[in-house]
Every structure is written in structure tokens, then in C-alpha cells.
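Subject: mismatched residue count in predicted assembly?

I count 288 residues in my input, but I want to confirm that the predicted structure covers every chain. Input:
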Amino acid sequence: MSAQVINGKELVSSIREEIRSDAAALTAQGNQPGLVVVIVGEDAASQVYVRNKAKACDDVGIYSEVHRLPEETTQAELIALIHGFNANNRINGILVQSPLPKHINEEAVVDEIDPAKDVDCFHPINVGNLMIGKDGMKPCTPHGVIEILKRTGVEIAGKHAVVVGRSNIVGKPMAMLLLREHATVTVVHSRTPNMEEITKQADILVVAVGKAHLIKANHVKPGAVVIDVGMNRPADGKLTGDVDFEAVKEIASAITPVPGCVGPMTITMLLRNTVDAASRAAKANVSV
Ligand code: NAP
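Triage response: the counts match. Full output below for your records.
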């Protein structure tokens, strides 16, 4: 039997409805959530992502600003701008679009973002909080994956989850969030011998590599839930995932399509983080 293809559109639209209502409540108290997106240089894909993020903010009633800086902007200039946003009460979330030009050290820039406004959850303090299970900012893509699983009724506790990829943005925080949900978690990567033997044991398989169709039917246990984070644009220009969708959907019990599921969910979690940051800021102001 063919797998359930998880309907990302439906999930995103119901979560955005919740975010819209929370944003409206904050706005009614004079605390409209605000997000600033900073982009340095002319990277074409980044320009599209930034436009989509601003559009998504409009859609749920979040105030947004986009700052487009020239390629030759210095690290010191970028950091000075960030310090300004840190001090600006209108702004609850600061996002610096990656990639930055080579002369700017991305880590040094992220370190300057106020952790309370770090809606990407890249700041070492937020990464540390995630490790020790403290509430607060959650990384957008892995958080989106957890929401997809929960809202599709997939039981996580007690299940064997295998994460393919160990990046700081997806693989590692994904493993942390799955652990928090009481899965037994295995992480595999480019140095894992016989990866297939491990992925085949997964009840939940999350793939975040960046190689089109790396995961084939022989990597998947019958009945597994397969979440494809990959976004690859091969020569034909058609966006495709890390999973061979057509083959794997014949074996899995549920599978996410690419495009149309993890991508839009990631932006939605960015909106969630911004509204939650605004809500924490409003509470902190009341208690002062
Ligand atoms: P990344 O930083 O390049 O990390 C890729 C990971 O895959 C690394 O840990 C690497 O292992 C591992 N890997 C590479 N080849 C492998 C192989 N043959 N077998 C097993 N593991 C292998 O990439 P990323 O930032 O995590 O992104 C991964 C993918 O997700 C990309 O396609 C990206 O575009 C996509 N993505 C999508 C969203 C979204 O919103 N949908 C968000 C973020 C990322 P080593 O560590 O050993 O090198």
C-alpha cells in the first residue's frame, strides 16, 4: 500500500491560524510582534527566501523590516546594525540571512544577536538551552519536523528515530528535539559505514543531507515515517528532496513531499518564534 503523503499545506495553514490569533492578541495590547531580516549581497536564492519571509509576516500580522545591504558591507557595520536592533523594542526577532559574503564571519555576527531575539536559534546560549531541555527558542526546521510528526498523529516516544546528517542547523538540533520527545535517536553521517543497515531500523527517518535521492527504498523499513528535509535543485531546475519519493512512498507508512512540507513549515516556525519572543518581551515589561 502506498504511504500517506503528509499534507504540508493543511498543517501550515492551521498553525498559521494559531499564530495569527496570538499575534492579533499581542497587537491589541500594543505589542505587535516584529521581525527584521538582514541580507548582505546579491545571492539570488536568498533574495527569494527573504521576500517569502516578509510575505509570511504580513500573512499573520507580524510587523517586518527587510534591510538589504551591499556586498561590501563590513562585519563591524553589520554588527553595529544588529546592536541597534537589539535595543529596538519594535523588533522581537533578528534574522541574518545566510550565506554572508566571505569577508564576514557568520559565527561572530550571530554571537552579537540578543539571544532573546535570536529567532533562528543559532546563538550559543540558545543552542545550550536546547541541549539541557530549557524552554525558549527552538530551531525552525527541526521544530517544524516535530510539529509535522505530532500533528500527523505519529507517536515519537519509544520509537527509534534515525537522523541522516549532523549539521548544526538541522541534524544535531533535530536529534536533540527527538530525544526530548523520548525517541531513541541514532545520527548517521558521511563517515557512517553501512548506513543502510541503520536507516533500515528507523521507525522515524529524518533526512537532512543535501544530496538528491540519496535515500532509496532499500534504506527504509516497511511502515516507517519518512521526513525529507533536503532541498536540491538539480540541472533540470526542479526542486527535489534527499529521498527518492516515488520509490520510498511504496514502502513507508507516511512521507513528506518536496517541495511543500518541511520548507513552508520552517518559515512557519520562524513566525512562531517571533510571536513567542514578543510574548516573552511583553511579559517581561509588565513584571518590571
Ligand atoms: P550540511 O550542513 O551540508 O550538512 C549535511 C550533512 O549530511 C552533514 O552532516 C554530512 O555529513 C551529511 N552527509 C553528506 N553526505 C552524506 C552521505 N552520503 N551519507 C550520509 N550523510 C551524509 O547541510 P544542512 O544545512 O544540514 O542541510 C541539509 C539539506 O537540508 C540541504 O538540502 C538543505 O538545503 C536542506 N535544508 C532545508 C531546509 C528547509 O527549510 N526545508 C532548512 C535547512 C536545510 P558530515 O558531517 O560527515 O560531512
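The mean pLDDT is 97. Marking this ticket as 'not a bug'.
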